[in-house]
């Protein structure tokens, strides 16, 4: 079915396991995405070989999650995650099984998986192992828990958010019993680490129908137990390929305490810096951007702010040309491009250093950016003689 490199690599791993007398299949997201004609990213292999046995079959392996049965097998074509069939033990913390048990039956392994669409296995000969009607649910575009939804969400509360994330990502509906179970168990999401919740939202923002996903998040009551407010109706046309843009838009909808809320999700400093820039640029749009903004902010930050203004039908004067064109027209693109520095100022003025140096440099920068002054030593010196040095 899939002829890309990842699938071929996974098939070669399966072949070697079979030659050693084991059974192995492709399972999970890769099979689901292939059936949906979506590009595969991770092609995972499941096998009845125990982790120790997998390690004997291949020359190069890395223990990446050996306690859960996952070994990274490295073949010349690339790495493949190989996980031993397993069943999960009791769940007492609503997060993770207390212990996992390796089993020899594929059906038992598929049964522990979250949704029918994620519980389909594919053999090397192209045949499917589909005990739970996963292919039919994919055809109907339905997310349905494997087995008793209520019980499955009680075991692992993150599955509820996964259901909603997948519905936004794939534009699927959620089966009625599965949705009702989310409504009943919503409060359990509090058991889940914020980092894992964030990872799901990262993917949700990239979905084809974020709006509908957030509607379900609110309808199911799950949103009530997550930091911040989602306001599904404001995401109507939202679409992005950059999760940072999702977080920035979410932040914009929060009002004054957005930083606290984003920190609650443990977003990184880099993400926080991006969000801050976008929000500041967005605020500045009210009075219109000048060259200072084109100089200060990155193209993606300004593009995001414009996008948000459009989504919220915020009445502002948008730039007349594409951002990159306006940025290309700037006389300089970064501070280091200035031909003068503090040492020049000290020498020319004959004054002692102090906070004034930085201030004057900033004035020079502003004047250059606004094309009021050329980035030329002699002209800058004349400008200084005229505007500053003669005054004292
Ligand atoms: P994505 O495209 O986001 O990677 P995925 O389906 O591959 O989607 P993963 O988190 O990579 O999701 O998990 C791989 C597989 O492991 C899933 O397809 C599913 O079968 C199973 N799985 C993952 N998380 C859970 C969970 N919380 N409970 C039960 N099964 C799970
Ligand atoms: Mg995956």
Low-confidence stretches: none
As for the CATH topology of the largest domain, it is: Beta Polymerase, domain 2
Give the helix proportion (percent range): 40-55%
Largest sheet: 7 strands, mixed
Helix/strand order, N-terminal first: HEHEHEEEEEHEEHEHHEHHHHHHHHHHHH
- If classified by CATH, what would the architecture of the largest domain be? 2-Layer Sandwich
The chain-level structural class is: alpha+beta
- Main-sheet strand order equals 3-4-5-2-1-8-9
Give the C-alpha Rg: 28 Å
Briefly, what CATH class of the largest domain? Answer: Alpha Beta
Count of helix runs: 19
Strand content: 5-15%
Query: In the residues, how many domains can be counted?
Result: 4
Distance between the termini: 80 Å
Mean pLDDT over the full residue set: 95
| Shape designation | elongated
Number of DSSP-assigned strands = 11
**CATH H-level homologous superfamily name of the largest domain:** Beta Polymerase, domain 2
Distinct small molecules? adenosine-5'-triphosphate, magnesium ion
Walk me through what this model shows.
By secondary structure, this protein is α+β, with helices and mostly antiparallel strands. It has four domains: 1-133, Beta Polymerase, domain 2; 141-225, Hydrophobic Seed Protein, CATH 1.10.110.30; 240-330; 335-389, Serum Albumin, Chain A, Domain 1 (Orthogonal Bundle), CATH 1.10.246. The chain is built from 19 helices and eleven strands. The chain has helices at 5-19, 29-35, 51-57, 106-111, 134-140, 149-155, 158-170, 176-185, 194-205, 210-219, 243-252, 258-264, 269-284, 291-296, 299-311, 323-328, 342-349, 355-369, 377-387; strands at residues 24-27, 44-47, 61-65, 70-75, 78-84, 86-88, 100-102, 121-122, 128-129, 142-143, 173-174. β3 and β4 form a beta hairpin. The longest helix has 16 residues, at 269-284. The model has no long low-confidence stretch (mean pLDDT 95).
């Amino acid at each position: 079915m899939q002829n890309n490199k990842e699938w071929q690599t996974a098939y070669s791993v399966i072949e070697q396991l079979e030659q050693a007398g084991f059974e192995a299949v492709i399972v999970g997201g890769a099979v689901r995405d292939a059936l949906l004609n979506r590009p595969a990213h991770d092609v995972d292999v499941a096998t009845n070989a125990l982790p120790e046995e997998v390690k004997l079959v291949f020359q190069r392996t890395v223990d990446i999650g050996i306690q859960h049965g996952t070994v990274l097998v490295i073949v010349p074509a690339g790495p493949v995650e190989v996980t031993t069939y397993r069943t999960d033990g009791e769940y007492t913390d609503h997060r993770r099984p207390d212990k996992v048990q390796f089993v020899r039956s594929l059906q038992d392994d598929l049964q522990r998986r979250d949704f029918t669409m994620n519980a389909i296995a594919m053999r090397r000969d192209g045949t499917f192992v589909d005990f739970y009607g996963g292919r039919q649910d994919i055809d109907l575009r339905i997310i349905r828990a494997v087995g008793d939804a209520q019980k499955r969400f009680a075991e692992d509360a993150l599955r509820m958010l996964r259901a909603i994330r997948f519905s936004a990502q794939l534009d699927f509906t959620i089966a009625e019993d599965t949705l009702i179970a989310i409504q009943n168990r919503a409060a359990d999401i509090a058991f889940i680490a914020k980092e894992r919740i964030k990872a799901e939202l990262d993917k949700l923002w990239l979905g084809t129908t974020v709006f509908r996903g957030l509607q379900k998040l609110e309808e199911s009551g799950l949103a009530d137990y997550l930091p911040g407010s989602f306001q599904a109706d404001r995401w109507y046309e939202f679409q992005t390929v950059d999760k940072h843009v999702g977080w920035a838009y979410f932040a914009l909808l929060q009002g004054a305490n957005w930083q606290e809320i984003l920190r609650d999700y443990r977003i990184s400093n880099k993400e926080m810096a991006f969000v801050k820039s976008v929000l500041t640029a967005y605020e500045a749009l009210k009075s219109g951007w000048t060259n200072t903004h084109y100089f200060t902010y990155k193209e993606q930050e300004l593009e995001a702010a414009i996008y948000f203004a459009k989504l919220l039908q915020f009445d502002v004067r948008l730039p007349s040309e594409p951002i990159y064109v306006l940025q290309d027209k700037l006389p300089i693109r970064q501070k280091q491009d200035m031909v003068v520095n503090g040492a020049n100022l000290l020498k020319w003025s004959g004054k002692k250093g102090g906070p004034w140096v930085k201030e004057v440099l900033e004035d020079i920068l502003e004047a250059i950016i606004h094309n009021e002054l050329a980035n030329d030593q002699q002209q800058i010196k004349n400008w200084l003689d005229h505007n500053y040095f003669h005054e004292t």
